[in-house]
Amino acid sequence: MGQEILLFTWLHLADRTCQAVHPRHDLSRPLTGVFSTRSPDRPNPIGLHQVRITSIAGNVIGLSALEALDATPVIDIKPLADRGGKG
Fold this sequence. Notes:
Elements: E1 4-10, E2 20-21, E3 32-33, E4 46-57, E5 60-64, E6 74-79
Antiparallel strand pairs: 1-4, 1-6, 2-3, 4-5
């Protein structure tokens, strides 16, 4: 326990109306939320969280410092890169 990992999440409940832009910088097009300008197949942002494992019970991993809503889909889990230059 206590290992730090990188957790990638699919922020499916994100507010896509914030940070409005003109798509492709075309001022003739109406302002659109930044996240709405992404592919219609992937309209929501991906979250990157550096967290610490606090517990593991079956297929449930307890994490500290995770800022995401319950039931936020997890895309991937990666080990934190060794910053010591070894391996």
